[in-house]
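Researcher: Quick test of sequence recovery. Tokens follow.
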């Protein structure tokens, strides 16, 4: 019994994931991207895929604990770093792009323009490590990334090993930014920080492709999420500057810029957007982006030639790209045509579709700041779906912003399953495409992960399904002045354990004991999502209870209970909250005076202005 209880804790899930990471690191030394190394050994592949299975199982279990309130955002962040750090000392997995980055940085280090010169013009260990067509194409990455790689080579004297490690460390700064920005985004968009961090930062797709692979996409989405968070927090100039830095890493982040203009307009105009405020926001945002980008380009010593090189990977034809896959399928179905003829046509059509979809999303996003950020996330997803070349880690782009909104459990399960598929959709050393049977195996594997995520519990992640909560999300808060600190702590722990175990008899006994003590001892607590993103965790006196809620919102106090609850935040703002009871509404005598043991599980708590 004790062992079973320990297996159900977030600590056990975190340590299980760490064990999986250990197997992955061991396997990476035989199966990872190692220049000049022989083909992956069978023993290393066994260790690697066994570790991936353990990590995914631990990640799914951690998601169950988030859904029941047994794992907080702090717990998820700890798991993220415990799982991420060991990957930095192992060879890259599923891609050899890290060595390509260093080769492109070597071009800039040699005093050449990486946007007009190619690594093949140089020689040395850095160039030999990078293989494939990237040796003969200019760099498609922005000036900030070129500056990072160039600086890493300069600081390490061009040592391939230490340059790769330093570049990885800078990319991991994007993971830190993600962990800091996601709770801010959740506060505005209505999601739960723990659930959002679980689906993004702790996602094995992010860990095994972005962290292990050292991809610059990690730095891009970190800067993007941090910039959007600042814009939502009314620090628009700094926010646009950070998003400009994200664009200076990889151009894809620029998709979000037009949507953030609506955020600025909504904040400045108040009641509704006006053309005057729109034009002013456009001028200020464009000026901020241009100045920021100009400063970065000047520091890097490069021009805007990288824009011409954005199609450098168009020779690739991965099946993860929707237009590419459609072109290949059409070539099989239409006699007389091959993929070389049809794929370019589908890719061209996809660009027009993408332009139309993004324009439509942008216009629909003008209503409010929240809809604008949601529109930006949807536009990033549309970008991934329409790009001619899509690699597994590209799907982290829309997750960086989209995870902060409320999700239905079905969509969470789909995202988890699809993430599992993407993790195993490449060869371990990134050298060759996965064969068809590998895709089929990954598809079956993803179904298992999705089913495990969906069927384990019928509850929801905090913040999903328009704020609906299970009874497990109800906590009890004691009114100030009742009992000693020890008595209060004991009572909280007892009620928390009873609620977690769904022990109705124990809950009833505790409520009876409270009633017998007399006085205003216990008050109902609604733990869940609200429209503005924070969670109502408190009651009389502003004393919040629950590990999943500490540090994730300001102290809140419930002024009255009934059909409407008034929530007071630290900033002094007071809003009304519509409350929908779970099965029954609070009794009339509870409206003005909170009676002992009168806790009512609440299913919907939404703040309204």
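Model:
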């Amino acid at each position: 019994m004790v062992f079973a209880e320990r297996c159900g804790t977030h600590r056990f899930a975190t340590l299980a994931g760490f064990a999986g990471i250990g197997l992955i690191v061991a396997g990476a030394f035989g199966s990872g991207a190692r220049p000049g190394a022989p083909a992956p050994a069978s023993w290393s592949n066994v260790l690697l895929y066994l570790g991936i299975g353990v990590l995914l199982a631990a990640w799914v279990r951690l998601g169950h604990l988030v859904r029941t309130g047994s794992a907080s955002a702090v717990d998820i962040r700890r798991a993220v770093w415990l799982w991420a750090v060991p990957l930095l000392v192992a060879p890259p997995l599923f891609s050899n792009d890290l060595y390509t980055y260093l080769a492109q940085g070597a071009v800039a280090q040699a005093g050449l323009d990486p946007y007009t010169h190619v690594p093949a013009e140089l020689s040395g260990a850095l160039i030999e490590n990078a293989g494939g067509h990237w040796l003969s194409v200019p760099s498609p990455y922005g000036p900030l990334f070129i500056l990072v790689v160039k600086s890493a080579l300069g600081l390490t004297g061009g040592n391939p090993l230490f340059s790769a490690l330093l570049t990885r460390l800078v990319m991991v700064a994007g993971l830190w930014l993600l962990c800091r920005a996601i709770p801010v985004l959740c506060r505005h968009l209505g999601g739960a920080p723990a659930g959002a961090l679980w689906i993004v930062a702790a996602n094995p797709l992010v860990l095994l492709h972005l962290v292990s692979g050292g991809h610059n996409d990690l730095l891009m989405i970190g800067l993007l999420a941090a910039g959007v968070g600042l814009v939502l927090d009314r620090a628009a100039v700094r926010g646009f500057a950070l998003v400009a830095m994200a664009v200076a890493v990889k151009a894809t982040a620029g998709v979000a810029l037009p949507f953030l203009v609506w955020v600025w307009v909504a904040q400045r105009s108040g009641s509704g957007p006006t053309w005057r405020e729109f034009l002013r926001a456009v001028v200020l945002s464009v000026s901020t982006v241009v100045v920021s980008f100009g400063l970065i380009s000047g520091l890097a010593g490069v021009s805007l030639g990288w824009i011409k090189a954005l199609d450098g990977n168009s020779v690739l034809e991965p099946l993860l790209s929707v237009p590419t896959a459609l072109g290949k399928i059409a070539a099989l179905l239409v006699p007389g045509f091959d993929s070389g003829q049809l794929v370019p046509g589908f890719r061209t059509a996809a660009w027009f579709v993408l332009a139309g979809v993004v324009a439509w999303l942008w216009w629909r996003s003008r209503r409010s700041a929240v809809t604008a950020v949601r529109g930006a996330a949807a536009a990033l997803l549309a970008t991934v779906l329409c790009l001619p070349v899509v690699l597994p880690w590209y799907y982290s782009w829309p997750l960086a912003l989209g995870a902060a909104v409320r999700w239905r459990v079905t969509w969470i399960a789909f995202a988890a399953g699809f993430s599992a598929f993407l993790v195993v959709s490449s060869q371990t050393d990134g050298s060759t495409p996965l064969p068809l049977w590998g895709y089929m195996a990954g598809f079956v594997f993803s179904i298992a992960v999705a089913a495990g995520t969906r069927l384990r519990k019928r509850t929801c992640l905090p913040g999903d399904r328009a704020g609906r909560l299970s009874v497990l999300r109800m906590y009890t808060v004691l009114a100030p002045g009742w009992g000693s600190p020890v008595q209060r702590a004991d009572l909280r722990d007892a009620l928390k354990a009873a609620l977690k175990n769904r022990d109705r008899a124990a809950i009833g006994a505790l409520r009876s004991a409270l009633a017998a003590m007399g006085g205003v001892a216990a008050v109902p607590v609604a733990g869940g999502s609200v429209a503005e993103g924070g969670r109502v965790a408190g009651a009389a006196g502003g004393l919040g209870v629950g590990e999943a809620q500490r540090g994730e919102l300001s102290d809140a106090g419930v002024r009255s209970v009934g059909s409407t609850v008034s929530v007071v935040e630290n900033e002094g703002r007071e809003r009304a909250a519509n409350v929908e009871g779970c099965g029954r509404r609070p009794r009339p005598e509870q409206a003005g005076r909170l009676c002992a043991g009168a806790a009512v599980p609440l299913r919907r708590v939404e703040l309204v202005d």
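The beta strands are 476-478, 522-524, 557-558, 564-568, 574-581, 602-608.
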